[in-house]
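Can anyone check this?
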Amino acid sequence: KNSEGHYRLITNGGELQIYDQTDSRQPFTIDSSGQIGIGTSTPASLLSVSDGGNTGFEFIPQHSNTRNILFSYDRGSSAYRSLDIDALDVHFNMGGTEKVRIDSSGNVGIGTSVPGAKLQVIGSTADNSAHSVLIRDSSNASTFSVRNDGRVDIPGAAVLGSTLSVASTSTFSD
């Protein structure tokens, strides 16, 4: 923008630039390879949005790898930055179907869009041999599991001398 409050449109070496003449800065660039920079004159990916320095986010569509990447990155220090997401609820969708939700109370639901606890997991099948929760160690051995029928397995608990307390009348069977 000049003294009348306008921006200048410049073509320079195959780049399209919008230049703020009053503040002597270039807030928008499309470089010769088609990469777009907002707040940067040297976009590092298809879409780079910067705070005017090195920190910002980059959007990189990768059709050949069947994915898209979103970086929160600082090019000056070559370090990843925190990415804050502010929303009422956050939904994680896979293939157009919601798989995980974090609601406004901080509850996490896996397999449910209405989590009723800090973590609620709903199995994806009625098959009682399938697991709703499965925890494995670094050698891929099961250390804790909960099946869809409610059966809890803690392999090796007796060997390790651990105590399992149940605070209700229960029937245990193998």
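Reply from J.R.: I decoded it. The longest strand covers residues 55-62.
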